[in-house]
Amino acid sequence: MTYSVGQCRGADGRVDPERIAAVIDEGRPDLLALQNLETETLPDQLDHLARQLGMRAYRAPQASGSGWLAHLPLKGIQGYDLGAGGSVLRADLDLDGKRLHLLNLKLTAGHQARQRQIAALVGPDLLGDRSLTCATLLLGDFADTFWGAGNLALSLHLKKAVGSLWRGTYPATLPLIDRDRAYYRGHLRIIATRILKNAAARQACRHLPLIVTCEITDPRTFLRAEKLERSRMEVAPG
To answer: What are residue 101's DSSP bridge partners?
Structure first.
């Protein structure tokens, strides 16, 4: 699930993380990418939601306002500042010997700033990083209203997981814009997608959550060091 919660501020202007937690609980995601959290409240909204949902929280200072919640352990947490309020929170998920690279994206609405952010996203530190050899899933708040040049750059590197027709997530009261999206590449199969559009979700904040069900289809498996059988032979450096 990807959910841009707008500091947990609902359609009535009231900040209420409990409403956000109720919407998330209805979707029952294994993994949740959150954007636009309030980071100065006590208790922190990410930790509060983690306790309410019984999930683990993951964050990085370079991606302020974004976080992962997961029932499964995540590794390799790294934050990237894209400038002008944009950020990426990267994580890796190991599942049944297969690895999935995860990117939680938050862009901003300014046209020029957004183009620079997308250029950094597809650059050598993120999507262009050669270490991203496994299936990759990018999801988050793309902060756009109309299709633009930045979206073309994304489409050259990734496949869109959800078609635009009738897939609006913003604004929640009349969702006409597919501002919250998911892209992927590599050995990944999209099984189903849905958007929570009930009354509770429309009241909780200005965005609706997008849920993507996917399967890692990579036939390769990765052995952890502790699973390798030891032999009498010693391995010398070089």
So the answer is: 92, 136
Residue 32 parent element (H or E): strand 31-35
Which helix (H) or strand (E) segment is 19 a member of?
helix 17-27
DSSP secondary structure, 79-133, as one string: EEEEETTEEEEEEEEEETTEEEEEEEEE--S-HHHHHHHHHHHTSTTTTT-TT--
Residue 164's pLDDT is 57
Share of the chain above pLDDT 70, in %: 89
Rounded to whole angstroms, the Cα distance separating 76 from 136 reads 14
pTM of the entire predicted model: 0.90
Judge contact between 184 and 135, C-beta under 8 A: yes
Structural domains of the chain, with CATH: 2-227 (3.60.10.10)
Beta carbons of 90 and 126 less than 8 angstroms apart: yes
CB 174 within 8 A of CB 202: no
Measured CA to CA, the distance from residue 118 to residue 87 in angstroms comes to: 10
